[in-house]
Amino acid sequence: MRKTLCLGFMLLPFTAAQQRTILAIGAHAADMDLTVGALLAHQKKAGDRVVMLDLTLGEAGNPKLSPQAYAAQKRHEAEAAARDLGAELIVGPWGDALIPDDEQARRYVADVMRQVRPTHVITHWKNSIHKDHRITSAIVGDAVLLAELEAVRAEHPPWRGIRGVYYAENWEDAEGFQPYIYVNVSDAFDTWTKAIREYQMVRGGVSPFAYFDYYTALLQLRGALAGRKYAVALDVDASAKHAVLDQLSP
Questions:
Q1: How many domains does the chain fold into?
Q2: CATH number (domain holding residue 106)
Q3: 8 domain-assigned
Q4: 58-116: per-residue pLDDT in tens?
Q5: pTM for the whole thing?
Q6: Structural domain contains residue 246
Q7: Is residue 2 in some structural domain?
Q8: 13, part of any domain
Q9: Which residues contact 224 (CB under 8 A, 6 or more apart)?
Q10: Percent of the chain with pLDDT over 90
């Protein structure tokens, strides 16, 4: 029977011998660590390659430090968290709140896709109270197409191997987000907690928002709904919400 996974990571058939490359693209350092860091660590344990692209360092959010000082701190924290998760890290060229919604940004992300050659891409959901998140989601959606096109000239050759685009669950991106795929990440929970605690914003003293408590509770909630201890929930575009089976699962 041809299977569609509901507790695995992909909607297409695959064999265990095939290595996936997962590219998680966030507007700021810590966005993808918090939302899908447990998933990245889980997939790394499964033998996959995982890469994070932070378009900015998110350096404008510390009221006690200048953006320049906090950028240096956030870069150090992002590098440490990526090592914990087993992920490669790429930091984009823009400043916090300054991601341009233009063709140049789309071509930059498309060329990163060509360089990394991902099979799966994860980014922000399209609706958000945060401008950077909305723009990042739109950039990524267009960049997937640009990465494929021979007519788009870039440093790296076209890449047509992206099997799906997935959206992370973020408290700032909640409008219209509907969990569709639940991934069991119970084996990566401890790795994830170590990684996100690399960030001062998670440990406390930067923001009054309880990041650690919220995202830990979210993993538990999604795990309960999935019949697992901890799970990450992802959404996909409406056009991708279909499953093809030769017969019903036993």
A1: 1
A2: 3.40.50.10320
A3: no
A4: 999 899 999 999 999 999 999 999 999 999 999 999 999 999 999 999 999 999 999 99
A5: 0.93
A6: no
A7: no
A8: no
A9: none
A10: 88
Q: What's the rounded Cα separation, in Å, for the pair 28 and 211?
A: 14
- DSSP, residue by residue, 53-91: EEEE--TT--TTS-HHHHHHHHHHHHHHHHHHHT-EEEE
Mean pLDDT, the chain, whole residue set = 93
| Dihedral pair phi/psi, residue 156, rounded to 5° | -110, 155
Name the pLDDT band for 55 (thresholds 50, 70, 90).
Answer: very high
Residue 212's CB: how many other CB atoms inside 10 A? Answer: 17
Two tokens, residue 90:
């790429």
Residue 5: pLDDT band with limits 50, 70, 90 = very low
Range of the domain at 162: 21-240
Q: Is the pLDDT of residue 17 over 90?
A: no
